[in-house]
Amino acid sequence: MSTMEIKRDMASLAAVVDEAARTATAIPQLTERVPDLTVEDGYAIQALSLARRLGRGERRIGVKMGLTSRAKMAQVGVDEVIWGRLTDAMRLEEGGAMSRANYVHPRIEPEIVFLMKKPLSGEVSPLEALAAVEAIAPAMEVIDSRYQNFKFALPDVVADNSSSSGFVLGNWHKPDTAIDNLGIILEADGRAVQVGSTAAILGHPLRSLVAAARLVSRWGERLNPGDIVLAGGATAAHALAPGMHVRAVYQNLGAVSLNVTE
Ligand code: OOG
Ligand code: MG
C-alpha cells in the first residue's frame, strides 16, 4: 500500500470511530477488520478523529490518562498506560444530569484532575510536573467504549480516544494539597459500589502527570497552560443506568456527583 493509501485508510477508520461516538452506536473492533493495526495507527486514528470533532466546533481542553491503576487494567484486560484528548463538549456539570441515550454503555470512575499553569512535555520529574500545576480537583470520568460489549485490544481503545466521553470536575484545591493516599468511595444511589485510594493511580497521581508529559510529547504534543489532565480511574468503573445518582466522595477533597437521565 502507498503512503497515500494508508493515510486515507486511517482517515476512514477515524470516521468510523468518530461516527460511532457521535451517534452512540456500538461497532466491531477495528482489529477485527485490520488485524495488524498497531498502537501507532491507533494514535494516528485518534488524532484524525479529534480533528473531526474540532471541525464540528469543539475545543480541545486537555488530555486524559487511562489504565494507570491495576483495577482499571484488570477490568478491561489491557495493561498499558494510554492517553486520549478531551474537548469542551465532553464536560458535564457538577451535580447536573447526563442523558444515558447519548452513550453506548457508559461507565463512571473516580479520578484526580490537574489544571496546568505552565507548559509541560517530555521527560520531567514529579517535582517539575508539580511546579507546572495550577490546581488539583476530584473528578469523575464517564467512559464509553464504542466497541461492542466494551471489549477491545490496545490499538482499538487508543483509536477510540481511550474511551473518553465525559467528565465532571469538583472544587479546585491548591497544587501542594497532599493527594498521594486519599480514600475514595464511589456511590451509586447512596450505596458504596467501589472503594479505593488515590495511591492506586501509579502509586501517586502525580506520576500520571509525569507519564502524560512523556506520552503527549511522543506524539508531538505538549500540555498547555489552562489544559486539564485527568489522571485515570482509581477504582474499577461502574456501569451507569437511567435514574441513577452517582457520587464520588474523597478524603479531604470533597465530593463530585452526577444524575443519569433516560
Ligand atoms: C479505557 C480507558 C481507561 C482510565 O481512567 O483508566 C480510563 C477503558 O477503560 O475503557 O479512562
Ligand atoms: Mg478514566
Write a short abstract of this structure.
With 262 residues, the chain is α+β, with helices and mostly antiparallel strands. The chain has seven helices and twelve strands.
Distance between the termini: 46 Å
What is the number of beta strands? 12
Q: Could you give the order of the helices and strands?
A: HHHEHEEEHEHEEEHEEEE
Average pLDDT level: 96
Low-confidence region ranges = none
- What is the CATH-assigned architecture? Alpha-Beta Complex
Instruction: Give the number of helices.
Output: 7
Give the overall form.
globular
Binned strand content: 25-35%
Radius of gyration: 17 Å
Described by strand count, sense and barrel closure, the largest sheet is:
7 strands, mixed
Q: How many structural units, i.e. domains?
A: 1
Q: What is the CATH class name? A: Alpha Beta
Set down the secondary structure blueprint:
Blueprint: H1 3-23, H2 30-33, H3 39-55, E1 60-66, H4 70-76, E2 82-87, E3 97-99, E4 107-116, H5 126-131, E5 133-143, H6 154-159, E6 164-169, E7 183-188, E8 191-197, H7 205-218, E9 228-230, E10 238-239, E11 245-250, E12 254-261
